[in-house]
Design goal:
One of its GO terms (cellular component) is plasma membrane. Keywords: Membrane, Transmembrane, Transmembrane helix. It comes from Arthrobacter caoxuetaonis. This is ABC transporter permease subunit. One of its GO terms (molecular function) is ABC-type transporter activity. The chain is globular and about 65 Å long. Helices cover about 75% and strands about 0% of the residues. The protein contains 13 helices and no strands. By secondary structure, the chain is mainly alpha-helical.
Length: about 270
């Protein structure tokens, strides 16, 4: 009597492999984010003195606005200027771009993508699960930083509200995933990791620069319409709460580039 062996494939294999294989880099990025928050946020009481006020007032207003320091003397403004608008933005973007450029283009260059696709994994499935992997890792960053920011709010005299922290975390998460989805899409279109890295990093940097120029010169305010950075932070979510219009723009762009990655990977000749 023969026994029939039934094998069941575990769900989301690409997603699980992406998350497991990148645990070291995720851990390093986690430590970096935590270190920045634990270093900078407790400094706020000492930064909110007369000397700092005099220093800010002595700087040209154009420079203050370009750097986003116009509200740095308030608790929400300080957290926005030092973390979510600068160091946190750089770290989350760098992580997302690294993951996004490696997911398709990096895998194709190494030959791993061809091997995976030849073992019954569909192209649409691969693209969507790698995108999910980027989103989930960024979501972990958002949860971690939200807990740390709220924990430090009272000791550091920041005066932050939980709802507003949630608002800025949504904006920060969306901004990071947008960079990752651009890297994913360019990687799927070109198969070149360097192109994916350069394009996604360039778009993120351009968005930051356009927002800075718009803050510096009112005649350049139209640049905010093309800046994802401005979409995320134009209404100061840490002070004002959720900006549904800005979040909607970011979400639409994320969906667009994720769909582009799926379409591009599905049409390209990978297996030769």
């Amino acid at each position: 009597m023969s026994r029939q062996r039934v094998s069941k494939r575990a769900p989301l294999p690409v997603f699980r492999r992406a998350v497991v294989d990148s645990w070291r880099s995720t851990f390093v990025w986690t430590l970096a984010l935590a270190a920045v928050l634990l270093l900078y946020l407790p400094l706020y009481p000492s930064m909110n003195g007369a000397d700092m006020r005099n220093l800010i007032s002595s700087l040209p207003s154009e420079l203050v606005n370009a750097l986003g320091y116009e509200d740095i003397l308030s608790g929400p403004g300080y957290v926005q200027a030092t973390f979510f608008g600068l160091l946190g933005f750089v770290l989350s973007t760098a992580a997302a771009v690294s993951w996004g450029s490696s997911a398709i283009a990096g895998a194709e260059e190494s030959g791993r993508l061809e091997l995976i696709l030849s073992h019954g994994v569909g192209r649409v499935q691969y693209a969507l699960e790698t995108a999910l992997g980027i989103m989930v890792r960024l979501l972990w960053f958002a949860l971690l930083t939200a807990v740390l920011v709220l924990a430090l709010s009272s000791p550091a005299e920041l005066g932050l509200e939980a709802a507003n922290v949630a608002a800025v975390e949504f904006a920060w998460l969306g901004l990071g995933y947008l960079a990752g989805s651009i890297a994913l899409a360019v990687g799927a279109l070109t198969g070149r990791r360097s192109a994916a890295l350069g394009t996604a990093a360039g778009v993120a940097a351009a968005g930051y620069v356009m927002n800075a120029l718009a803050n510096q010169n009112s005649e350049l305010g139209w640049l905010r319409n093309f800046s994802p950075y401005s979409w995320a932070y134009r209404n100061d979510p840490l002070a004002e709460g959720f900006d549904l219009a800005g979040l909607g723009l970011i979400a639409a762009a994320c969906v667009l580039f994720t769909a582009l990655a799926v379409w591009a990977l599905n049409r390209r000749d990978i297996l030769g």
